[in-house]
Amino acid sequence: MNELTTMETAVQQLRAAVGDDPELLPMRISADVLANAITAAKDNGINAARVNDLEFALSDLMSAVDDAGAPDVVLAAVAQLQNDTAALRRANALPRETVSAIRDLVTRLRTRAKALERNQYRVEGAERAAAPHPPAELRELAIPIARELAAGGFATPELDQLIANPESLRYHSVNEIADELEVIAGS
Questions:
Q1: Domain total of the chain
Q2: CA 98, CA 184: separation in Å to the nearest integer?
Q3: From CA 184, how far away is CA 14, in angstroms rounded?
Q4: Is 126 strand, coil or helix?
Q5: What single-letter DSSP state applies at residue 66?
Q6: DSSP label of 133
Q7: Which of 186, 112, 107, 117 is closest to 154 using CA atoms?
Q8: pLDDT tens, position by position, 133-157
Q9: 145: domain range?
Q10: What is the pTM of this model?
Q11: pLDDT tens, 30-89?
Q12: 103 with 88, same domain?
């Protein structure tokens, strides 16, 4: 991908501009992390998960740049990195249907979590209310999502646990699955 090559060049320019200035060390470290993410994408192929890694590393770099008085050449390199990452995101985004299915599943998981939490704080002796979206239903919704995410290069250990053992679904695991999916979908 042409974007990865231009990203490598931009990171090299950024490193040269930062040099060994100890005040710009956080920027240098962030640039090194981004360079590693670019290398991983070049060596192992680009997919949605690797684009997420690039975006995460770029976000850290942008924070470091904001915190330091960065030279203009650094700002130009960061702008180039942002443009290239956006192009990679467009080219490797998860299908809209998958993102929609993820958001639907997260909504159901959050609804279940709220019901489970309410059951913990019921009046003594009161009967437990049935929680909506039983684990078997959530599992069936999760299977195609897990396949799509695996194809996109994402590891989903929490979602995989729901699929493998839906009856182990508890309050905290519901929230962990929802959090995992929100990070992936960018919610």
A1: 2
A2: 11
A3: 28
A4: coil
A5: H
A6: S
A7: 186
A8: 999 999 999 999 999 999 999 999 9
A9: 96-185
A10: 0.83
A11: 999 999 999 999 999 999 999 999 999 999 999 999 888 778 889 999 999 999 999 999
A12: no
